Amino acid sequence: MEKENLSVVLHSQGDLRLVLLQMHSVGICGSDVHYWQNGRIGDFVVKKPMVLGHEAAGRVVKVGSAVKNLKEGDRVAVEPGVPREMDEFFKSGNYNLSPTIFFCATPPDDGNLCRFYKHSANFCYKLPDNVTYEEGALIEPLSVGIHACRRAGVTLGSSVLICGAGPIGLVCLLVAKAMGASQVVITDLSADRLVMAKELGADFPLTVKREDGPEELAKRVEGLLGAQPHITIECTGVESSVQTAIYATRPGGVVVLVGLGAAMTTVPLLNAALREVDIRGVFRYCNTWPMAIAMLASKKVNVAPLVTHRFPLEQAVQAFETTRQGHGVKIMLKCDKTDQNP
């Protein structure tokens, strides 16, 4: 869609608080690949052509007449979830749970993997000069880590097990450490991903095999830490990994479920109940962009190493195929022909 066509929308009734963005960097998420390959995630079904992409940063090129917080030329990170109504979830600060929320690249809502994109100005956050566009795009996955660690109650001295060292497991690692976790064990099937996890601050990278039993793995985690972890953040959604998370967590501890797996999963619920292990869900995030920007600007968190591949927008299919095959960690698409810098 051409810039001129989009800019007209900004002057139409109801669109006074929108901004038009020249997109710069957009990361590819596993959900993007899943929609591409399967056409659905759970109850969200692609019924018509849909623009993908929700990990994004860009530059403001036009503002609606009611926009006060941004101006042309501002570099911004885009929060992809925008509440459509002031319902009970919005009022309580849990707008991510609103059933009617707009969310980029979730049917039927289009995403922002494109040249130009319009978005609510209230959900575009100005980037400090020392935060790059790519770091701005990575605020989206970083926000998942922030929300997960908040839900888990990570604090000074916490011992944490993270199941899965993919992009989300790695951001959970970064945030847990920034929030004061003293020791972090992180597991994965891939030795390469655990090498990066070690570089990012993991105390105990633990290689697992598909045939490993959940209770056996739980014992190995306890052996590494000298005690069971206070908190487990499960980032794979794999049934055996969820079972490991419950068995591994100490009595009175917390298991947070971040990874999306099968609709029905068999878990040792009685084990969790009798040991008062809390099991908490995570759905996206809310109220995380300001904290994420502060973390990046202060250099308390470094997400730059997560970007392992970059492609121009014209090579989007190759970029998606690279992600599908599991190469690297985070693949970034560059949407601004005039600026290919990070």
TrEMBL record:
CDD domains recorded: sorbitol_DH
Ranges in a coiled coil: none
Keywords, comma-separated and alphabetical: Cell projection, Cilium, Flagellum, Metal-binding, NAD, Oxidoreductase, Zinc
Gene3D superfamilies reported in the protein's UniProt record: Medium-chain alcohol dehydrogenases, catalytic domain (3.90.180.10), NAD(P)-binding Rossmann-like Domain (3.40.50.720)
Subcellular location(s) per record: Cell projection, Cilium, Flagellum
Chief site of localization: other
Protein name: Sorbitol dehydrogenase
Organism: Hucho hucho
